[in-house]
Amino acid sequence: MAKTVVLKPTEKTGIPFLRGILARSLQNAGVPFEDAYRLASDIRRELDDTEEISTTHLRKTVVQHLRKLSYPEATERYQTNVKVPAPIMVRGANGESLAFSRGKMQQRLESCCLSTEEASYITTVVYDRLLQMEKWEIPSSRLAELAYDCIQQEIGDDCSRRYLVWLDFFNSGRPLLLLIGGTAASGKSTVATEMANRLEIVRTQSTDMLRQVMRMMIPERLLPVLHTSSFNAWKSISGVGREHISKDKLLINGYLQQVNLIEVACQAVIERAVQERASLVLEGVHVLPSLQEKVSKDSNAMVVPIMLGVLKRNHLIMHIKGRGTSTPQRRSKRYLDNFEDIWRLQTYILSEADRSGTPIVINRDKETTIRELMRIVSDSLLQRFGRSPKEVFRQLGSL
After folding, report:
1. Closest CA to 205 of 271, 254, 294
2. 323 within 8 A of 332, measured Cβ to Cβ
3. Which secondary-structure segment (H or E) carries 313?
4. Is 148 helix (H, G, I), strand (E, B) or coil?
């Protein structure tokens, strides 16, 4: 029997203080499990030397702790003994039901070019409508239709149409191949990771990793150009008359020789993704616009090439220094020592993207860049979309 007894003012008998019971009450009020259990444990320790405590006093003690945890809504519910509403279950096309997740819905809304604020607002509107409708279980197709209506009414036709396009694409089974290029320190890895997260793509691949695998397979004496950085691959090129070739031409020739080698591995990764109908984010300095031509026209994959750039020298230097701080093993000093070559290489890469019509995104800050990339992907999907809302929701309901 617990040492502390909790007494109700209206009753003569008491019940033992139980940490588990208090933790459950806190969860019912909306406190996450770990915090609820920790708080209940803290209170039990406080009451070690207390033989009796009234329910009123205990409740006041709990409220004081809750306020320190900054859970205002949970505090109010606990004080008034109001439970969090039962979870709303969303029934998928496969018959499986999952609890409605506001975070998941907001993430998907951000994918179709809504701002964080807009996505948060629409998520709240949708949730409130579900509560008003007293819908404790809803088909995923009906939830999607409700979200579409809310976006159209609250924000406008453009955003609602983009949401419709994303719904149609995600349920089409077609793979999305997002090819992100750019020079060293342009932010490719960071952007690729964030895009994969927002688009719910589990496959990501960097050309740096592919190059490292190839280096393990092919000795440096056989292919020295493979065992260098992209911006100094030219140093491994030998040949008569090299001294008469301009530095810029040598730089580009060395880079392209390396690209031609890595492109074989890139093509293999892409083909595997297409065969398995799996979306992929491929990023790296070796991703040139010509890579999209390697994707079979019969694959039904949605290929979106994007080139990142940093147009101010001091900004690129800051990116390089930042890279050295966050990942010291990448040795920013080596990049700074070769900055002029990196800058010249970027000029060539961006020129190739411009010549081929590949979208160029200037990476000023992460959030702005991600939103611009999301819009480019959305625009690409819009170009191939020609279905009505009824057709999309009918298809969702029949899956």
Report:
1. 271
2. yes
3. helix 313-326
4. helix
Burial degree of 343 (CB within 10 A; 0-12, 13-18, 19+): middle
Residue 353's nearest CA partner among 302, 303, 305 is 305
Kindly report, residue by residue over 100-118, the tens digit of the pLDDT.
888 889 888 988 878 888 9
Return the percent helix, strand and coil in the chain, to nearest 5. Answer: 60, 10, 30
Other beta carbons less than 10 A from residue 21's beta carbon: 13
Q: What is the pLDDT of residue 241?
A: 58
Contacts for 78 with CB less than 8 Å, ≥ 6 apart: 25, 26, 29, 59, 62, 63, 66
CA 309 – CA 183 distance, rounded (Å): 7
Question: Which tokens go with 282?
Answer: 């491929």
Tokens at 89, concatenated: 């279950």
Q: What is the pLDDT of residue 1?
A: 42
pTM listed for this prediction: 0.76
